[in-house]
């Protein structure tokens, strides 16, 4: 058996996957950084993640190659980083790659640093031979060239590196902007989304096509704000096409990462916790806006998938499922026609093949990715079946195929727990649980929140970033950990009205303001003020595969400001919105969450206070009506008068009595309330608009 390197005891699956490479890998830390300085060697920094297909390719081709390992071990200090555990390093050095190459990035990220951590050369995947020369040299030739330059042209290397560092340090400079924030920014965003919209297949741009959950949520808001039917069509057409494509797991539920083609057929097969959280909230809001039962089906299938396959016994959520099984991408998920007919029998098998587009030749390397080209109603008519009969048969086919698929070799699962991604999923379960009156989902959100606050937080109230299953938490939390969890806890409070969740959200917001806020300019830094010193302290300027920490921080602060009457929260949120005005104007497709926050800020934002006995049918009818309405620019507070005086935590509840013993709702804007609505029928009518 090969001798393990320094990665064997790491919590990250991605790092553990490299523990038996002949490369003498180190995790990022004092030992590796000290060794580079002691030996005066450049650092080879390799950043990736466990579900990254090309990361695995480079490992097998290059990092398992003895000759390449010898070059790395003799002339470099090699450090392996999981981008999901250390997004601070990934952000800095991905920006460095873009500065050095003027090209977009990707993973695996391969960066060469001085012992002082200054980047001077960067790229992504490098093959072991010259197959892609001259545009992409072999990794072996690259290593020899960089070693030669380090030995003989170091002054040039240091000059390049210092120029990169200067650029990185200036990238996050945001200036206070005194100009008025207006809905012109939202109109501009809508026009930009119209221009990039694919009218045939939905989504934006061409292949590869990503789901863009934030932009879809933004479109739903723009449709409501401007009464724009085109915006609603773009959102719903995209959601429909994605849910019927191969990017959605038609058998087991849940979304793969993205589609390699423009029509959502062939996915990149990994499943990420954050995609499924963000898309779930998109479908919840689309259901609120349209009442289309198909959207509820997708929400339930996705959240049930997460409960079944991505949830720890203690209640938190795993990070990812791999694209590969038995060394082949997608093998776990694809089917042959004969296999489906054998499993389901002639009648059900024939129906399933017709519904899911299954053929003998297949649509993916001789196999079939299941997809839908028609709605349930259309397929039921074509088959001459009542709709409920058709749906029951299709569900039976899904169950049988799932049970057979479960006996295959499963894709790897990265079982690390990430606070930020768990915060996104808490938000999804809370919103779905409240909207669809589903106790299982509220319980899932509650268990996850309880776990994070008890296991992923230090005694002084600071969050940790990550933990391995059954292992203690580690690494200081980043802005996104605080922001995503804060926003999720606010949603959980509004779904359950438990005061604890609002108190915890406010406490995390205080830490954000104290440790991450830029005291001299708009916005929040990616890392806290006492974080490990790196070459630059950056701010995330735009959304990536997850929303930017700044945008979610603004969203959460605006919500808390309304619920808690915290003017300091509102002031920092508005200052940050102004600082990001040019980003929203010039790059709206990269600022979806900040534009969502702007829509909330511009309002009108309503504050709803409901007073009634919990468990009383009339009260529950009212809460259901409020939760099911598509009113994204709204906060909700609740008090049960049989429990005594309302908690002082929520000023919105002060001096608002129940009237005539009936459930009563106060609808306010800017803390000025209209006449109270009394009785469930009156309140339901008001929210059914």
Short recap of the structure:
By secondary structure, the protein is α+β, with helices and mostly antiparallel strands.
What does this protein structure show overall?
Helix content is 50%, strand content 10%. With 689 residues, it is α+β, with helices and mostly antiparallel strands. The mean pLDDT is 95. A hairpin with a 7-residue loop joins strand 6 and strand 7.
How is this fold's topology laid out?
Elements: H1 13-16, E1 26-27, H2 30-39, E2 43-48, H3 53-63, H4 66-75, E3 77-82, H5 87-101, E4 109-113, E5 119-123, H6 139-152, H7 154-171, H8 184-196, H9 213-226, H10 229-244, E6 258-259, E7 267-268, E8 271-272, H11 273-290, H12 293-309, E9 320-321, E10 324-325, E11 328-329, H13 337-355, H14 376-383, H15 387-405, E12 413-414, E13 417-418, H16 419-435, H17 439-455, E14 464-467, E15 473-476, H18 479-496, H19 499-516, H20 549-564, H21 567-579, H22 581-586, H23 592-602, E16 606-611, H24 617-628, E17 634-639, E18 664-669, E19 672-673, E20 677-678, H25 680-687
Parallel strand pairs: 1-3, 2-3, 16-17
Antiparallel strand pairs: 2-4, 4-5, 6-7, 8-9, 9-12, 10-11, 13-14, 14-15, 16-18, 18-19, 18-20
Helix pairs in contact: 4-6, 5-7, 9-10, 9-11, 9-23, 11-12, 11-16, 13-15, 14-15, 16-17, 16-18, 17-18, 18-19, 18-20, 19-20, 20-21, 20-23, 24-25
């Amino acid at each position: 058996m090969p001798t393990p390197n320094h990665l064997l005891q790491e919590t990250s699956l991605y790092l553990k996957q490299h523990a038996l490479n002949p490369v003498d890998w180190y995790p990022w830390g004092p030992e590796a950084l000290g060794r580079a300085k002691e030996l005066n060697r450049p650092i080879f920094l390799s950043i990736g993640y466990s579900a990254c297909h090309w990361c695995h390719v480079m490992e097998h081709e290059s990092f398992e190659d003895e000759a390449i390992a010898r070059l790395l071990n003799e002339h470099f200090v090699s450090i392996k980083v999981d981008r999901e555990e250390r997004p601070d390093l990934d952000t800095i050095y991905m920006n460095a790659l873009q500065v050095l190459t003027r090209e977009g990035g990707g993973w695996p990220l391969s960066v060469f640093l001085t012992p002082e951590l200054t980047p001077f050369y960067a790229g992504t995947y490098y093959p072991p031979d010259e197959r892609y020369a001259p545009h992409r040299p072999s990794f072996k030739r690259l290593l020899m060239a960089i070693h030669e330059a380090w030995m003989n042209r170091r002054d040039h290397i240091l000059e390049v590196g210092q120029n990169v560092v200067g650029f990185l340090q200036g990238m996050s400079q945001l200036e206070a902007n005194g100009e008025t924030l207006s809905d012109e920014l939202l109109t501009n965003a809508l026009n930009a989304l119209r221009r990039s919209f694919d009218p045939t297949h939905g989504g934006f741009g061409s292949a590869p096509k990503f789901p863009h959950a934030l932009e879809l949520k933004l479109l739903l808001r723009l449709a409501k704000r401007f009464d724009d039917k085109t915006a609603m069509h773009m959102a719903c057409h995209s959601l429909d096409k994605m849910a019927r494509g191969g990017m959605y797991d038609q058998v087991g539920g849940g979304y793969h990462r993205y589609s390699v083609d423009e029509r959502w057929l062939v996915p990149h097969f990994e499943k990420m916790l954050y995609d499924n959280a963000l898309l779930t909230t998109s479908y919840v809001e689309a259901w609120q806006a349209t009442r289309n039962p198909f959207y509820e089906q997708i929400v339930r299938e996705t959240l049930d998938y997460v409960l079944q396959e991505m949830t720890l016994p203690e209640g938190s959520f795993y990070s990812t499922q791999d694209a590969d099984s038995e060394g082949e991408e997608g093998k776990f998920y694809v089917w042959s026609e004969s296999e489906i007919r054998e499993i389901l029998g002639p009648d059900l098998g024939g129906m399933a093949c017709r519904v899911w587009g299954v053929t003998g030749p297949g649509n993916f390397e001789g196999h079939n990715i299941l997809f839908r080209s028609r709605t349930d109603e259309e397929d039921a008519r074509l088959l001459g079946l009542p709709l409920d009969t058709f749906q029951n048969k299709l569900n039976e086919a899904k169950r049988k195929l799932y049970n057979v698929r479960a006996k295959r070799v499963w894709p790897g699962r990265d079982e690390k727990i990430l606070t930020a991604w768990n915060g996104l999923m808490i938000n999804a379960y809370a919103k779905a649980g409240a909207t669809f009156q589903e106790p299982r989902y509220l319980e899932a959100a509650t268990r996850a929140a309880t776990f994070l606050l008890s296991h992923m937080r230090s005694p002084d109230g600071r969050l940790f970033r990550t933990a391995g299953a059954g292992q203690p938490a580690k690494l200081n939390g980043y802005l996104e950990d605080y922001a995503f969890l804060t926003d999720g806890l606010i949603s959980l409070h509004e779904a359950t009205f438990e005061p604890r969740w609002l108190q915890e959200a406010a406490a995390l917001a205080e830490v954000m303001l104290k440790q991450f806020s830029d005291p001299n300019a708009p916005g929040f830094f990616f890392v806290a003020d006492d974080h490990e010193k790196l070459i630059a302290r950056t701010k995330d300027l735009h959304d990536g595969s997850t929303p930017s920490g700044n945008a979610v921080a603004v969203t959460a602060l605006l919500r808390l400001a309304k619920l808690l009457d915290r003017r300091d929260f509102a002031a920092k949120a508005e200052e940050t919105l102004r600082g990001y005005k040019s980003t929203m104007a010039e790059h709206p497709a990269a600022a979806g969450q900040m534009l969502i926050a702007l829509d909330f800020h511009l309002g009108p934002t309503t504050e709803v206070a409901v007073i009634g006995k919990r468990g009383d049918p009339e009260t529950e009818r009212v809460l259901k009506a409020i939760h099911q309405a598509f009113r994204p620019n709204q906060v909700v507070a609740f008090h049960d008068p049989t429990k005594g005086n309302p908690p002082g935590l929520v000023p919105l509840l002060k001096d608002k009595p129940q009237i005539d013993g009936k459930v009563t709702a106060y609808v306010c804007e800017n803390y000025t309330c209209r006449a109270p609505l009394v009785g469930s029928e009156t309140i339901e009518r008001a929210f059914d608009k």
